[in-house]
C-alpha cells in the first residue's frame, strides 16, 4: 500500500546544552533536585529582572553548528516568542527568530548501505521552560497543576532539518547520528529519557512522483529512538488510510501515545499560536569575532563518521563493528586507548569491547565512562592471553572477576592459580586417563566420527579446570588416538 | 526657609555641622508627610521605620567621625515601580497590590550603600502608563501648586513629593517623558539619563528599550549628586554601558559662554500654550545674555515621533506585562474554572483600562500581518528621529525646547480622551526614541503653575546638560519657589 506514496519528514530537535549554569542567570542546570530549588528571581521572571547571556551557551551552540556543517551568523540576535503557558515564567520564551546562530548545514546518513544527505535549515539558541505536573491527565481536565521551574532557563539549541527525510528508518538514523555528533562535540548529554534530547516531527505523504507537498501533521512526545520510528510508522499508515478512504488530512499537532501505540490530536491549525516575535530589547545583538570563531572551529574533535572510516581503513574493523564503537565518543575513546596500550590486533579489542565489556556494563547498568575496567587493564589481560599465560576461555573468567573486584588480571591469575598448563607430561597423563575412561568416544572417533574428539577435549579441560593449553590438548589427543 | 524646603546639599551641611541629626531630619520629614499627605497623596507605601533605622546608622557614622556619602541620612522616595526587597512594589496596580519583591533594584542597592533614608514608595500611573497619575489603582496624586490640577505622570508621586517637601529627592522612571513632564508640572528638576547610563535591573519594565531611571530634585546641584550615586555600568543589565562615570558636580562649574544651543522650530508649532511659549522664549534670551549662541533649527521627523512611540512602547509592554497571569505572584482571580479562564479573568480584573488599552495596541501591532505596517515602520521612524538628532548634534551642544505644551491641567480634563492625554508626551518622546539624556528645569509660571524648560544633549553628555541647566538656575530664582500647602 505504501508503495504508492512518498513520505516527507522534517525533524525539529531540541538539545539541552550541558553548561554549568542557565542561559540568562547563574542557577545550576543539574537535572533533578527538589522542585523550585534551582531558581532565582531571573529565571522565575520576577518583575524588574533582566537576562544576562551566558557566553558558554554561545560557544556550545557555535560548536554544534560547525559540527553540523552549518554557516555561522556572525551577527545574530535574540527575539521574544510570545505565548501564554504556566511553565513559562514570563509568558514569552527568549529564542531566536530571523537571525539564528547557525544555518544551512547538513548530515550525511548511511541507511541500508546508501548515503543520504539531510539538509539542516537552522540551529538556534533558546531557553527551556519549566515542568508542569497535573492532578489529572491534562492541564484542562485537572483541578490543579504544580509548576517546577528548575528547568526554566536551561539553555537549548533547536536544530531544524529540511523535509529531506523519506522514511521512519531515515528519521531514526538522522536522530542517532545527530545525537552522536552532539555527544562528540560535548555540547549536550543527549539523554532522551531525561528530556535533554527531544524531537518533534513534521510528516506528510504524497502520491509517488508528485512534487506537491501533502498536508502535514506535527508529531510530539516521542521520547526514544524507537518511539520516533514507531510513531512515524503509525502516522504514515494513518495518513494513507485517510487518503485511501477518500478523506483529507487535517493540518494539526498530534501526540504519540506510547502505551496505545497511536498518535492523538492535540490542537488544530486554527488554534495555532501567533507568536508575535520581536527583537529582545533586554539583550544586545551577538557579534561573533572571526578569531574566536576559528578557535572554536579548531576545538571540534574528530566526528563519528570520520572516526568510523578511520577504524575501518586503518584498523581493519568491519563497518558494523566500527559503527557500534563510534556510536558513542566515550566508547570510541576507550577502544582507541585500549588498542594503543595493547599494540596487537584491533579486531580482538573490538570483540572484547563490544562483547564482554558492553555486556557487563549493560547488566550492571553502568556507563563506559565509569567502567571498573579501564583500557590499560583490558590491554594487560589481552597480553596475558597472547603470551599463553592464560587461555582465552580463562580470560573471560578473569575479565568478570576484574569487573567485579577491580583487581588487575595478573593478580587474579596468580591468586586463583589460573596459569595455563603447558607441560606436555602433565597433559599427557590426563589425556591417557580420559581415553581410558571413555572407550565409547574413542570407538566413535576411530569409526570416523571426527566430532567425538571434541567431547574428549572437553573432558581434559574439565579435569584441568580449563587451565590446560587447548592447542596442546588437541595435539596430544590426536597423537595418542592415532597410536591406538 | 523650613527644613523640608531645603535641598540635599544644604541639609548635608547641617548634618556635617551637627546642627541637626539624621534622625531629627527624618522625623521632620515624617511630620511633614503627616501634615500634607492627605492633600497631596504622593505615597503608596510609607516606610518611616526603615528611614529612621538608616538615619540612626548615619548618625552613628557621623559620631564616629567616619566619612559619609553626600546623600547619607537624606530622606528620599522611590517611584513604586522600583523593586525593593521586603517592601511591596505595586506599580500602582491592583495586579501587584500585595507583591513584595525578594530583591533590591541596583539603584536601590547603590542608594542604600550611600546611606539614603527611604521614606516610601511613591504613586504613579498604573505600570507607568499615563501622564497624570489618574490611572493609579490607589487614586491620583495632586499637584502641590494647585490641588485641583494633576502633578503629571507617570512619575507624579515622586515629583509631587519633592515639590511638597515630603522628601528631599526621589527616583522616577522615564519612558516617554514620565520624569520630565511631572517635573515640569510640579516645578522641580527632573533628569532622564542616557539609555544605558543607569541600570534598569529592578525597574519593573514598561518598555524595555525606552525605560530609564532618573532623579527628581529641588535644584541642579542635587540632580548632579543623585545622578553620581546611581549612574554606572551594571553587570546585571546587559543594556547598561561600560563607561567611566564623570564627576557631575565638577561639571557644574563650566559656564555657557560659547555654548551652541539649537532650538527646533517643530517644538513651537500649533498646540503650544502662548504663555508657555513666551516663557521659553524668555529663557532663550537669558541664555543669550549668558553668552550662549542660540539658533533655530529644523528636525523634520519630529511629528512622527508620537505615533512611533505609541507603537513601540505598547508593543514591548504587551510582552513585558504578559508575566502577570496569576500563576506565581500578584493578583489571581478567585472564580476561574481552568487555566485559560484564570489568565483571562486575572488580567481583566487586575489591570486598569489604560494598561489594557496599551496591551491591546501592542499585541495588535506585533501580530502577523500587521508587524511590517506598524512595528517595523515605527522602528524605521525611530532611526530617522535618531538621525535628526545626530545631525543636530554635529552643530549644537544642546537643544532647547519646552518640556510640555501647557502647565498642569485639571483632574478629569483628559482622562477620557486618550489621544489628548498622549499629546502630553509630544516634546518628550523623541528623546526616549533616540536614547538621549534630557533635563527639565523650572523656568517660570503661568496662572500660578510652574513651567518647565527641556534641554537635550548627546548620549552620555549629562555633564554638558547639567552645566547648561546650572547656568540658567544660577541666574534665576524659579528653583527657589515653593508651593504653599496646608498645615504650616
Give your account of this protein's structure.
The complex is a heterodimer of chains A (484) and B (488). Chain A has 484 residues and is an alpha+beta fold. Chain A has 15 helices and 16 strands. In chain A, helix 5 crosses helix 6 (319-326), helix 7 packs across helix 9 and helix 12 (424-437) packs across helix 14 (452-463). The radius of gyration of chain A is 30 Å and the shape is elongated. Chain B has a domain at 9-259: Amidase signature (AS) enzymes (Alpha-Beta Complex), CATH 3.90.1300. Chain B has helices at 8-16, 22-40, 48-63, 106-113, 156-163, 180-186, 220-230, 248-251, 274-289, 305-320, 339-350, 353-366, 372-395, 418-422, 429-434, 462-474; strands at residues 43-46, 75-79, 117-122, 169-174, 189-192, 212-217, 260-264, 293-297, 398-402, 438-446, 449-457. In chain B, helix 9 links the parallel strand 7 and strand 8. In chain B, helix 2 runs antiparallel to helix 3 (48-63) and helix 7 (220-230) packs antiparallel against helix 16 (462-474). The longest helix of chain B is centred in the C-terminal third of the chain and has 24 residues, at 372-395. The radius of gyration of chain B is 21 Å and the shape is globular. Chain B starts with 7 loop residues before the first helix and ends in a 14-residue tail after the last helix. Chains A and B meet through loops of A and helix 10 and helix 11 of B.
Shape of chain A: elongated
Residue stretches of chain A low in confidence (pLDDT < 50, at least 5 long) are: none
CATH superfamily of the domain at 9-259 in chain B: Amidase signature (AS) domain
- Tell me how many strands of chain B there are: 11
Amino acid at each position: 500500500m505504501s508503495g504508492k506514496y512518498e513520505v516527507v519528514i522534517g525533524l525539529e530537535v531540541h538539545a539541552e546544552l550541558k553548561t554549568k549554569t542557565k542561559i540568562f542567570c547563574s542557577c545550576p542546570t543539574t537535572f533533578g533536585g527538589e522542585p523550585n530549588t534551582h531558581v532565582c528571581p531571573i529565571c522565575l521572571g520576577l518583575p524588574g529582572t533582566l537576562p544576562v547571556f551566558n557566553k558558554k551557551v554561545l560557544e556550545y551552540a557555535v560548536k554544534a553548528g560547525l559540527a553540523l556543517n552549518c554557516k555561522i551568523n556572525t551577527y545574530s540576535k535574540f527575539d521574544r516568542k510570545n505565548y501564554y503557558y504556566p511553565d513559562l515564567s514570563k509568558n514569552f520564551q527568549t529564542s531566536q527568530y530571523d537571525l539564528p546562530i547557525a544555518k544551512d548545514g547538513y548530515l550525511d546518513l548511511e541507511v541500508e548501505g546508501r548515503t543520504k544527505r539531510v539538509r539542516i535549515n537552522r540551529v538556534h539558541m533558546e531557553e527551556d521552560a519549566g515542568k508542569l505536573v497535573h492532578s489529572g491527565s491534562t492541564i484542562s481536565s485537572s483541578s490543579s497543576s504544580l509548576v517546577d521551574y528548575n528547568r526554566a532557563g536551561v539553555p537549548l539549541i533547536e536544530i531544524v532539518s529540511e523535509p529531506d527525510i523519506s522514511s521512519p528508518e531515515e528519521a531514526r538514523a538522522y536522530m542517532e547520528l545527530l545525537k552522536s555528533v552532539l555527544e562528540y562535540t560535548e555540547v549536550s548529554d543527549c539523554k532522551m529519557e531525561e528530556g535533554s534530547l527531544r524531537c518533534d516531527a513534521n510528516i506528510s505523504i504524497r502520491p509517488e512522483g508528485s512534487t506537491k507537498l501533502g498536508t502535514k501533521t506535527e508529531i510530539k512526545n516521542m521520547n526514544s529512538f524507537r518511539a520516533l520510528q514507531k510513531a512515524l510508522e503509525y502516522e504514515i499508515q494513518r495518513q494513507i488510510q485517510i487518503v485511501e478512504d477518500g478523506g483529507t488530512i487535517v493540518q494539526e499537532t498530534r501526540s504519540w501515545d506510547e502505551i496505545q501505540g497511536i498518535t492523538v490530536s492535540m490542537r488544530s491549525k486554527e488554534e495555532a499560536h501567533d507568536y508575535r516575535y520581536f527583537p529582545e530589547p533586554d539583550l544586545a545583538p551577538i557579534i561573533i569575532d572571526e578569531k574566536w570563531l576559528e578557535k572554536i572551529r579548531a576545538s571540534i574533535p574528530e566526528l563519528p563518521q570520520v572516526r568510523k572510516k578511520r577504524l575501518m581503513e586503518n584498523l581493519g574493523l568491519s563497518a558494523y563493528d566500527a559503527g557500534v564503537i563510534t556510536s558513542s565518543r566515550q566508547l570510541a575513546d576507550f577502544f582507541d586507548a585500549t588498542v594503543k596500550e595493547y599494540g596487537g590486533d584491533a579486531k580482538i579489542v573490538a570483540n572484547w569491547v563490544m562483547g564482554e565489556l558492553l555486556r557487563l556494563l549493560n547488566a550492571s547498568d553502568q556507563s563506559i565512562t565509569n567502567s571498573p575496567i579501564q583500557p590499560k587493564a583490558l590491554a594487560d589481560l589481552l597480553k596475558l592471553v597472547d603470551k599463553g599465560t592464560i587461555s582465552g576461555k580463562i580470560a573471560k573468567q578473569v575479565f568478570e572477576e576484574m569487573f567485579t573486584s577491580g583487581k588487575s588480571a595478573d593478580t587474579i591469575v596468580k591468586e586463583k592459580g589460573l596459569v595455563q598448563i603447558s607441560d606436555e607430561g602433565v597433559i599427557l597423563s590426563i589425556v591417557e586417563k580420559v581415553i581410558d575412561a571413555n572407550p565409547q568416544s574413542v570407538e566413535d572417533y576411530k569409526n570416523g566420527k571426527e566430532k567425538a574428539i571434541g567431547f574428549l577435549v572437553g573432558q581434559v579441560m574439565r579435569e584441568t579446570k580449563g587451565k590446560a593449553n587447548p592447542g596442546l590438548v588437541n595435539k596430544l589427543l590426536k597423537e595418542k588416538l592415532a597410536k591406538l | 526657609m523650613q527644613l523640608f524646603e531645603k535641598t540635599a546639599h544644604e541639609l548635608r551641611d547641617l548634618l556635617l555641622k551637627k546642627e541637626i541629626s539624621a534622625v531629627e531630619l527624618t522625623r521632620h520629614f515624617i511630620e511633614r508627610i503627616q501634615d500634607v499627605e492627605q492633600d497631596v497623596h504622593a505615597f503608596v507605601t510609607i516606610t518611616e521605620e526603615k528611614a529612621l533605622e538608616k538615619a540612626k546608622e548615619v548618625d552613628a557614622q557621623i559620631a564616629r567621625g567616619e566619612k559619609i556619602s553626600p546623600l547619607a541620612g537624606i530622606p528620599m522616595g522611590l517611584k513604586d515601580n522600583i523593586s525593593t526587597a521586603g517592601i511591596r512594589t505595586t506599580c500602582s496596580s491592583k495586579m501587584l497590590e500585595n507583591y513584595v519583591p525578594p530583591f533590591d533594584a541596583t539603584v536601590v542597592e547603590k542608594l542604600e550603600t550611600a546611606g539614603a533614608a527611604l521614606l516610601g514608595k511613591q504613586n504613579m500611573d498604573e505600570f507607568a502608563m499615563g501622564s497624570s497619575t489618574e490611572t493609579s489603582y490607589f487614586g491620583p496624586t495632586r499637584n502641590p501648586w494647585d490641588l485641583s490640577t494633576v502633578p503629571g505622570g507617570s512619575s507624579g508621586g515622586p515629583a509631587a513629593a519633592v515639590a511638597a517637601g515630603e522628601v528631599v529627592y526621589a527616583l522616577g522612571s522615564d519612558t516617554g517623558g514620565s520624569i520630565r513632564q511631572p517635573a515640569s508640572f510640579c516645578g522641580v528638576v527632573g533628569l532622564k539619563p542616557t539609555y544605558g547610563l543607569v541600570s534598569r535591573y529592578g525597574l519593573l519594565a514598561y518598555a524595555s528599550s525606552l525605560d530609564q531611571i532618573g532623579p527628581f530634585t529641588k535644584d541642579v546641584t542635587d540632580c548632579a549628586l543623585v545622578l553620581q550615586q546611581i549612574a554606572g555600568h551594571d553587570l546585571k543589565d546587559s543594556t547598561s554601558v561600560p563607561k567611566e562615570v564623570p564627576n557631575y558636580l565638577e561639571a557644574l562649574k563650566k559656564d555657557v559662554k560659547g555654548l551652541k544651543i539649537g532650538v527646533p522650530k517643530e517644538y513651537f508649532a500649533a498646540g503650544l500654550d502662548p504663555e508657555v511659549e513666551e516663557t521659553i522664549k524668555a529663557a532663550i534670551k537669558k541664555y543669550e545674555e549668558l553668552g550662549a549662541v542660540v539658533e533655530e533649527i529644523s528636525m523634520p521627523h519630529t511629528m512622527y515621533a508620537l505615533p512611533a512611540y505609541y507603537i513601540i512602547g505598547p508593543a514591548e509592554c504587551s510582552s513585558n506585562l504578559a508575566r502577570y497571569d496569576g500563576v506565581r505572584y500578584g493578583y489571581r482571580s478567585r472564580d476561574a474554572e481552568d487555566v485559560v479562564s484564570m489568565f483571562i479573568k486575572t488580567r481583566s480584573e487586575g489591570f486598569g483600562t489604560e494598561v489594557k488599552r496599551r496591551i491591546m495596541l501592542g499585541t495588535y501591532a506585533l501580530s502577523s500581518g500587521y508587524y511590517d505596517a506598524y512595528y517595523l515602520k515605527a522602528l524605521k521612524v525611530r532611526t530617522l528621529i535618531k538621525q535628526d538628532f545626530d545631525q543636530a548634534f554635529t552643530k549644537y551642544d544642546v537643544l532647547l525646547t519646552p518640556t510640555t505644551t501647557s502647565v498642569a491641567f485639571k483632574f478629569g480634563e483628559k482622562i477620557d480622551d486618550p489621544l489628548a492625554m498622549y499629546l502630553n508626551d509630544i516634546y518628550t518622546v523623541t528623546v526616549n526614541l533616540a536614547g538621549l539624556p534630557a533635563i527639565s528645569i523650572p523656568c517660570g509660571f503661568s496662572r500660578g503653575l510652574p513651567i518647565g524648560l527641556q534641554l537635550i544633549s548627546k548620549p552620555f553628555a549629562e555633564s554638558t546638560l547639567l552645566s547648561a541647566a546650572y547656568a540658567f538656575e544660577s541666574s534665576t530664582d524659579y528653583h527657589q519657589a515653593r508651593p504653599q500647602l496646608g498645615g504650616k
